[in-house]
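step 4 of 6: structure.
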Amino acid sequence: MSSTDISINKDVHHAHEEHDHHHDQNFFEKYIFSQDHKVIAKQFLFAGIFWGFVGGFLSVIFRLQLGWPEATFTFLEPILGEWIVNGKLDSEFYLALVTMHGTIMVFFVLTAGLSGTFSNFLIPLQIGARDMASGFMNMLSFWVFFLSSIIMFMSLFIETGPAGGGWTVYPPLSALPQAILGSGLGMTLWLISMALFIVSQLLGGVNYITTVINLRTRGMSMTKLPLTIWAFFLTAILGLLSFPVLLSAALLLIFDRSFGTSFFLSDIYIAGEALANTGGSAILFQHLFWFLGHPEVYIVILPTFGIVSEVIATNSRKPIFGYRAMIGSMLGIAILSFVVWAHHMFVTGMNPFLGSVFMFLTLIIAVPSAVKVFNWIATLWRGNIRFTAAMMFAIAFVSLFISGGLTGIILGNSSLDIQLHDTYFVIAHFHLVMGAAAFFGMFCGIYHWFPKMFGRMMDEKLGFVHFWLTFLAVYLVFMPMHYLGIAGFPRRYYSWTGFEAFNMFADMNSFISIAAILGFTAQFIFLFNFIFSIFKGRRATANPWHSNTLEWTTPVNPGHGNWPGEIPTVYRWPYDYSKPGAVEDYIPQNVPFSQTQSSNLPHERDLE
Amino acid sequence: MITFAIGLSLILLLVILFLLFRIGTLASIFRGSTQRAVGTTRTSNKVNGILMLLFLIVGGAAFAWSFSDSWDEMNQPLASVHGGWTDSLFWTTMVVIGIVFVITQILLFWYSYKYQHQDDKRAYYYPHNNKLEIVWTMIPAVVMALLVFAGWKTWTNITSAAPEDAVVIEVMGKQFNWMARYPGGDGKLGTANVQYIDAVNEMGVDFSDPNSMDDFMPREIHVPKGKPVLLKIRSRDVIHSVFLPHFRLKMDAVPGMPTKFWFVPTKTTAEMQNETGNPNFTYELACTEICGKGHFAMRFILVVDEPEDYEEWVASQKPFIEQNPQLLSKFTGESDNQMVLEKSAEEVKTEL
């Protein structure tokens, strides 16, 4: 393994030696069990894209059911086998579909696929490090995730079906195999997979934090970090503090399921017999789950805050407006995210006084979120905007974040949540604000950093087609869902036709399903563009977007160790775009003030 | 054969699309647009800029139209006192966020369109403006404070203790239906415990408790109009959730932890039938917490009567134990067992 021992310490290994070393690596060391952060990032990206298609496909199946509840789906038999009973989708399998869609999208795509890809790829490159603090732990992080993925994927194919108690797996439903088919082997696999997943997240998170704190290049103070790094840094801290709580909840649930404990079970009569469990609290699980669950939504969205800020600043050719306010608001959101979890539980019978406290704390989050939106819009103002595919996704991200975020003000209000809790209003809210928005942030990142990842450009025109179809589909799917939610349509319903109160909006549901299928189909344009461009895309230059951050100072295809020579020193913040007096409309971070005398501001003169 | 034809035409379609893509790429090389920095091409920027503007205008109009078109359907008829408070707070908040929504979306798309790339132009270097930032931090903070205050006041009113004279009804969720129990003439519900549950005594009522002797379990819930009604909610297997959409009422049914919710119905079923013009209108109770296979089918009927009709209805109900006298033998015959059972019944915090 000595050949892959990437040294951070320049005195021991000269960078040139690194270059020689990496020719020694065999195929497995280079591409499979690689300790190079760039390769690990790509592994996470491929896994994330794979899971994204699986998760999307599951949603298409249940959207078919919701859009056309009276139709027969015999044509799905080749895929779903006995889950189609007399041409009808099995209602328990429907629940398994929504459960797995949620689990896959939240954890495997938008946590592992997003943080895993961009934290890994960008942290060393943007702070000026040769690699992560521990390449080995980083490799472990991916392979533990891979193992977790295999187990979760396997659970899709077992006879009793995958977990079916909702992605939040509330006991007693998830604890009792008698209650639902999915709580049998499927749930066991879910718990094992998630436990491994958490291990992977912790291995990754420790690395991200350590790397950002310790391995910044000369001159790279915390206030010169790109916002991406701030976002990844805070995300990793959130994960490190909250995922262990989910692990504890999962362990207690495993104990309740397999070893006869009663952490979450009490007073239960099921399948013709009264259970002996007594004294447990089903609500305790919800507290533990949401103590992770709420920070988790910020684990999903914070990295995209960073990515979008970076892309908007670069392509508006303007400094990000209010750099310090952007960091401050991310800090505020990160801290607040730990004290709002019970807003998911206003109507669980929790003490109403707690409800008021959590309502107050929840609505405070609207303030830093609003600041971020205003700052993004202010960055666009009087810019010189380049519509790259990444930029389109970044602008749309802001639009989706506004649309979805605003309804959070309604749902965070406990008295309004009484009617709207667990209805399609919630579905619409979180799909816009953390589902679609995070996906858009991810696409934005992929289009933007693709040249650095693969040395080639993605096709911009296909990118635009992909963008417009996706953007349109997202709004067509999720805006009408607000109407269903206001009318009280409960979520996780196999069909609403049994209720007189919910027998309208049948056309609307078909419409949503058509839009969802359109949106899913559009992703194949992306897939084609992605794969085709890896091999045949136009060759990229070292800095195709004329960006300031350090990763663009590396060669087109950065090798193991990132910079062939010495690591660049940083002199300035990453947002010197269109500075008056400068020759170009961008000044990279590694350009000293002495070379830019014409554009230096008064307080920068001392630094010349 | 048809599948083959469909497959073939799909492949042809893909081939055509691929060729178009290649031609497009070659054309852009000929035009020389590949020589320019990405995102600075005039036509492409123009097209995307106009699409942005179109998306804003057409999308906004479509949204406004569909919203007003769905207005009647999305507003469920309202039949409770507190529902009036939450509905008005909801629409007030909607107006507030609607204003923010319109302003920010317009600025976002308009700026994107207006400030698209021009070769001879340079962006305005504008890194921060403290005054502006303080202003736009304070405005949402103040608005949030007002909304929190309004929400908190409503919430405290809704969750306050039920009046002494409230009609008490126990609602129990199970896979996959609801059951209801009334305290009968004595106004007290007998205790219950899962250990007593069998095929007949599905709610696990303890019939050695004198309070349960007059308890009755109707097939639908009746409540009097204009009187406070207290629902005592529990579950016997997994978590369910009582949702009465017309009363803006929702509360989880949790095994091992009884919950409650009180409300005042304002319109009888008959009045609502007149108002909606639907002679078959009924108030429905739905489950809103995922509970298994039949989650979507846990429907229960609730009827709001005029107070006098309600009294009549209560008087006509027979106590459960009168209808199922054989149950009593189970409670008197097993005195040894009963000691144990009673003890465990006390331990359970049912408060019923």
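step 5 of 6: annotate
 - DSSP finds ten helices and nine strands in chain B.
 - Chain B has two domains: 41-60+76-116+129-160, 167-347.
step 6 of 6: archive
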